[in-house]
């Protein structure tokens, strides 16, 4: 092979490597925000960042975008739209400032006949072995008390979390969003505010990792019954 051809190949390889490095810099988790879209409503919905569609198919009830959506730092609006042509807005956030290196969970939820979007920062810190981090999201249209007990434990005392409609432990700031609980405390019971009988719904956590927070969303299904589900962190 001639020296000219070898030199040309080396130049091309260098350019390809430079392009790969540049691409990696653009999508590096430290240089962008990562968003997980969750549908806790009964309408099929497609997530958008600004005017850009971010998921190939509509998310139905209890579905979430398993792959993270990359959002460039700065002010953006997150919107859930219908599958119509042209699509119509179901609900959207106000213009929100996204910071590089952060993770956000965006949840479409119903409050009666009105839809809205809950934004929750992912601020989980690893906990000690034998414990796990639990975040409870009340995506129903009513306030409720939540008690976390062992699988066979009884409900008593102060609620583990008292949440308003469309709210979560830690609120939208993410401070103390994940409750640190021991691995035996896995049964979540939801009651009308101020009561401890007649549970509206229960859910048993089956995976309690110490290195990733567990988010459980309580939402109403198509017939109005409360149907909780787990949302895994996007990757």
**Assembly state (oligomeric):** single chain
Structural class estimated from helices and strands: mainly beta
Query: What's the count of strands?
Result: 20
Radius of gyration: 22 Å
Q: Could you give the order of the helices and strands?
A: HEEEEEEEEEEEEEEEEEEEE
The CATH C-level name of the largest domain is Mainly Beta
Shape descriptor reads globular
Overall number of structural domains: 2
What can you tell me about this protein's structure?
The chain is mainly β and 235 residues long. It folds into two domains: 27-122, Domain of unknown function DUF5300 (Immunoglobulin-like, Sandwich); 123-235, Immunoglobulin-like. The chain is 11% helix and 38% strand. The chain is built from one helix and 20 strands. The chain has one helix spanning 3-27, and strands at 33-39, 46-49, 52-53, 63-64, 69-71, 74-76, 78-81, 89-92, 96-98, 103-111, 114-121, 131-138, 144-149, 161-163, 167-168, 179-182, 187-192, 201-204, 214-218, 229-231. A hairpin with a 2-residue loop joins strand 10 (103-111) and strand 11. It is globular, with a radius of gyration of 22 Å. It starts with a helix and ends with a strand. The relative contact order is 0.16. Mean pLDDT is 87; it is low at 1-27.
List descriptors.
235 residues; mainly beta; Immunoglobulin-like; 1 helix; 11% helix; disordered N terminus
Brief write-up:
The chain is mainly β and 235 residues long. Helices cover 11% and strands 38% of the residues.
Provide the fold topology:
Elements: H1 3-27, E1 33-39, E2 46-49, E3 52-53, E4 63-64, E5 69-71, E6 74-76, E7 78-81, E8 89-92, E9 96-98, E10 103-111, E11 114-121, E12 131-138, E13 144-149, E14 161-163, E15 167-168, E16 179-182, E17 187-192, E18 201-204, E19 214-218, E20 229-231
Parallel strand pairs: 1-10, 12-19
Antiparallel strand pairs: 1-4, 1-5, 2-3, 2-7, 6-9, 7-8, 10-11, 12-15, 12-16, 13-14, 13-17, 17-18, 19-20
């Amino acid at each position: 092979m001639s020296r000219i051809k070898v030199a040309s190949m080396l130049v091309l390889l260098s350019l390809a490597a430079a392009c790969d490095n540049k691409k990696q810099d653009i999508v590096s988790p430290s240089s962008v925000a990562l968003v997980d879209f969750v549908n806790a409503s009964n309408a099929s919905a497609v997530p958008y960042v600004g005017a850009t569609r971010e998921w190939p198919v509509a998310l139905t009830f209890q579905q979430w975008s398993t792959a993270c959506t990359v959002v460039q730092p700065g002010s953006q609006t997150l919107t859930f739209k219908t599958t119509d042509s042209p699509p119509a807005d179901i609900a959207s956030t106000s213009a929100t400032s996204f910071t590089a290196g952060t993770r956000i969970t965006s949840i479409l939820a119903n409050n009666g006949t009105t839809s809205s979007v809950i934004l929750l920062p992912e601020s989980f810190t690893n906990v000690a072995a034998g414990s796990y981090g639990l975040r409870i999201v009340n995506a129903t249209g009513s306030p409720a008390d939540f008690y976390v007990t062992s699988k066979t434990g009884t409900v008593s005392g102060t609620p583990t979390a008292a949440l308003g409609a469309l709210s979560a432990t830690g609120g939208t700031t993410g401070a103390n969003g994940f409750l640190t609980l021991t691995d035996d405390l896995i049964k979540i019971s939801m009651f009308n505010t101020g009561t401890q009988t007649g549970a509206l719904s229960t859910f048993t956590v089956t995976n309690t990792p110490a290195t990733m927070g567990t988010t459980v969303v309580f939402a109403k299904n198509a017939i109005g019954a409360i149907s909780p589900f787990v949302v895994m962190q996007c990757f």
